[in-house]
């Protein structure tokens, strides 16, 4: 979930792989849906399936915004997908060594920050993204595991980053 103190809680559903589930997400009022392009993920979507869902959403009113998720993808792969697939935001992982954030500056962004130790405002201040998601840390996985992290680890965060 993405929250902002000035707005209502937003719901983002990731791992959408087929049109029928995407239709249900729209009907149930999801604000964002995420297409996972992480090669190691069991929820990775084929580009052709993503294109079908995008075509459906673009023909409907009040559709969720489309988020493309990347982790350990080459910039060439990210550029290839984002150039042919209509989308609203790109999501990346803060500690992904392959991501070149400077090359993504022209895109609306969501940053996923994997929490594994105590974090403070200072740890988050340099993140340039429209939204920030705090996610659990799992070695070798960019996130989206469904596991929670110890919320005490973010108790020192006082700024409104979300």
From TrEMBL:
EC number, as in UniProt: 5.3.1.24
TM stretches of this protein: none
One Pfam family per UniProt: PRAI
GO biological process, one term: L-tryptophan biosynthetic process
Enzyme class: isomerase
Keywords: Amino-acid biosynthesis, Aromatic amino acid biosynthesis, Isomerase, Tryptophan biosynthesis
UniProt-recorded name of the protein: N-(5'-phosphoribosyl)anthranilate isomerase
The encoding gene: trpF
């Amino acid at each position: 979930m993405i929250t902002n103190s000035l707005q209502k809680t937003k719901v983002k559903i990731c791992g959408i792989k087929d049109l029928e589930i995407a239709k249900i997400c729209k009907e149930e009022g999801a604000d964002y849906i995420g297409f996972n392009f992480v090669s190691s993920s069991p929820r990775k979507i084929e580009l052709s399936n993503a294109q079908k869902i995008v075509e459906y959403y673009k023909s409907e009113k009040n559709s969720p915004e489309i988020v493309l998720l990347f982790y350990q993808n080459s910039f060439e792969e990210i550029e290839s997908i984002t150039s042919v697939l209509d989308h609203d935001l790109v999501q990346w992982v803060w500690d992904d060594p392959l991501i070149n954030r400077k090359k993504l500056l022209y895109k609306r962004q969501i940053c996923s920050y994997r929490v594994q130790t105590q974090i403070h405002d200072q740890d988050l201040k340099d993140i340039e993204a429209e939204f920030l998601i705090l996610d659990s840390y799992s070695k070798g996985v960019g996130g989206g595991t469904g596991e929670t992290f110890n919320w005490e680890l973010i108790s020192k965060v006082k700024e409104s980053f979300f």
